[in-house]
Structures are given as structure tokens and as C-alpha cells.
UniProtKB/TrEMBL annotation:
Binding residue positions for NADP(+): 12-18, 107-110, 142, 165-168, 181
E.C. designation(s): 1.1.1.271
Protein name, entry field: GDP-L-fucose synthase
Active site feature: Y138
Site (Important for catalytic activity): S109, C111
Record carries keyword Oxidoreductase: yes
Residues the entry annotates as binding substrate: R189, W204, R211, D280
Xref: HAMAP family: GDP_fucose_synth (MF_00956)
Length: 325
């Protein structure tokens, strides 16, 4: 079947990653993209997911639905993070297999790797050490998702692939002041400080932790690129069908450097202060992206350009908040 003719289900199409995948697919000419809102389909309800797959019979699935958040959210809601993600993954993967779906893409996270993994982190680092405690429940759920796909491949001969992105940001991000990831949280904090003419902005931790960031539309293009690779070529790069693939830029910076860059993009003129009483998280998280580059893909959006686009999206989101209020 021609790629453009396939019926493609994008789980989590309203989220940052899912919406970027839909944009990319539509831009490439795909006509039949299947979506459901949470109100229309609760992915934690196995019976509902089973009925959905029986009725829609998609050819491909992008599993981008997940409960996500930053350090504060992961620390505050660990039970919800592990339960929701395990249930969604289990239901979608199992019911996709039951309905005959041969191709599925599972989107994970770089937090699957040990806290003190050798940097940059290769795919082989999985399960070689202890996880970062602040997001361990979420990480365990994502590891289970990888192993779920591997197990169905081994037992049933499916072609279920997994990509592990680094920290993502961009249009559709969550800008909540407490429950968002570091980059969108900074955008809100520096924007509000600019409006209030605040003398200083305080960022969590020492500022020394190093992080890698990937623009979400680059992540979408990587996911689709990996999904569309012929099985033989995918096996050639991963050795076996049981391997996952890192997706990132291959470059990182300190949180302090990130704060300075966000401050400059936003136009804030005050001081930046650190709060060492708050957790840094893992000291460094940089992915080895040599495998996906060998597959013919690499990121194209620079960090500054991506942050500028994200700031425009944040400002648009503020108008939505005002309308709701």
C-alpha cells in the first residue's frame, strides 16, 4: 500500500508531540488521519480502546498519548504518572495487535536512562543503572512501553518501533507555572517578570545541570522518518527489531545558559538567580544520536530559533487564557 493511502491513527493528537505529527503527516499529503479526543475515547479504558480499533482498523499507529510534566509534577503525582502511562500504552499496543495493526511507533523519553549513565547516552545504556528518583515512575512506565513493543515483535512478528526523544518544546506545550517542563516554565516566568518589571527571576537548582532540547516539529519528522524506513533498513541500523532509537540534537547546555537565552528572547532585563535548595535532577542528559543520523535524519531547528517560535506560541496561548477567564 502507498504510504499516503494508509489509515493512520495518532493517539494524543491534541498534545504537543501528537499535534506536530499530525501537522507533518498532513503536510506530506496523508489524507486519512484518525484522531479522538479524550472525551471521545478514554485510552485507559480497555473495552473502549478495543471497540475503537475494531471499528477504525488503522494501518499505522503513532502512540504519542502520555501524561507528562516537569520535576514538580512528577514528584507531586507519581501514582498518576505511572498508572496513566502504563494503562494507555498497554491498551493501545495490545488492541492494535488484536486488530491486525502491523506498524506502530511508540514515543518514549530520555528519562529511561540511568541518572549517572555515561554521556552522551547510547541506546545500550537502558537498564544499566538506577533511574533519576524525581521521575522514576514515569521512566519505568516508558521502559515498560519499550519492552511491550519488543515483546510483541518477538512473539507475534509485529513491526513496533520506539523512539526516545530528548527534552521537547514548541507549539502546543504546557506553560503551567508549576506542572510544566523547564523550558516552557522559563518562558512564562521571564515573560511575567518582564511585564512586572521584576528585578530578578529565580530558577530551580544550581543552574549547572546540562540538558538537550529538541524542537517538537523536528521530533515529529524524526518519528515519521523512522516509521517509514523499510523493515530491512531499520533492522540493518538497529541490528534487531527489539531496539529503540534516540532522537535529539546531539548538543546540550547548562540550565543557567538556557535561562540566559530564554531571558534574551523574551526581552527581560533583570537578574537571573539560582535556588540551590531545589533539585537539579540528573547532572547531565545528552543523547547519542549517531544511530538516527545513520538512518538519514538530523534536527534542523536551532535552539534560539525554536525558542523564538515557542515564545510566539506562548503569547498566543495567553490570549486563550484571557478568553477563558
Amino acid at each position: 500500500m502507498n504510504e499516503l493511502q494508509k489509515r493512520i491513527y495518532v493517539a494524543g493528537h491534541r498534545g504537543m508531540v501528537g499535534s506536530a505529527i499530525v501537522r507533518n503527516l498532513q503536510g506530506s499529503g496523508h489524507k486519512t488521519i484518525i484522531t479522538r479526543t479524550h472525551d471521545e475515547l478514554d485510552l485507559t479504558d480497555q473495552a473502549s480502546v478495543r471497540r475503537f480499533f475494531a471499528e477504525e482498523r488503522p494501518d499505522q499507529v503513532y502512540l504519542a498519548a502520555a501524561r507528562v510534566g516537569g520535576i514538580h509534577a512528577n514528584n507531586t503525582y507519581p501514582a498518576e504518572f505511572i498508572y496513566s502511562n502504563l494503562m494507555v500504552q498497554t491498551n493501545v499496543v495490545h488492541e492494535a495487535w488484536r486488530s491486525g495493526v502491523r506498524q506502530l511507533m511508540f514515543l518514549g523519553s530520555s528519562c529511561i536512562y540511568p541518572k549517572l549513565a555515561e554521556q552522551p547516552m547510547t541506546e545500550a545504556a537502558l537498564l544499566t543503572g538506577k533511574l533519576e528518583p524525581t521521575n522514576e515512575p514515569y521512566a519505568i512506565a516508558k521502559i515498560a512501553g519499550i519492552k511491550l513493543c519488543e515483546s510483541y515483535n518477538r512473539q507475534y512478528g509485529t513491526d513496533y518501533r520506539s523512539v526516545m526523544p530528548t527534552n521537547l518544546y514548541g507549539p502546543g506545550d504546557n506553560y503551567h507555572p508549576q506542572n510544566s517542563h523547564v523550558l516552557p516554565a522559563m518562558l512564562r516566568r521571564f515573560h511575567e517578570a518582564k511585564l512586572a518589571d521584576a528585578p530578578a527571576v529565580v530558577i530551580w537548582g544550581t543552574g549547572s545541570a546540562r540538558r538537550e532540547f529538541l524542537y517538537v516539529d523536528d521530533m515529529a519528522s524524526a518519528s515519521i522518518h523512522v516509521m517509514q524506513l523499510p523493515a530491512e533498513e531499520y533492522r540493518r541500523h538497529t541490528q534487531v527489531m527489539e531496539s529503540h532509537v534516540n532522537v535529539g540534537t546531539g548538543e546540550d547546555l547548562t540550565i543557567a545558559e538556557l535561562a540566559a537565552l530564554v531571558s534574551d528572547v523574551v526581552g527581560y532585563k533583570g537578574r537571573i538567580q539560582t535556588d540551590p535548595s531545589k533539585p537539579d535532577g540528573a547532572p547531565r542528559k545528552l543523547l547519542d544520536v549517531s544511530k538516527i543520523r545513520q538512518m538519514g535524519w538530523q534536527a534542523t531547528t536551532s535552539l534560539r530559533a525554536g525558542i523564538e517560535l515557542a515564545y510566539l506560541d506562548f503569547e498566543r496561548s495567553l490570549h486563550g487564557e484571557e478568553a477563558i477567564a
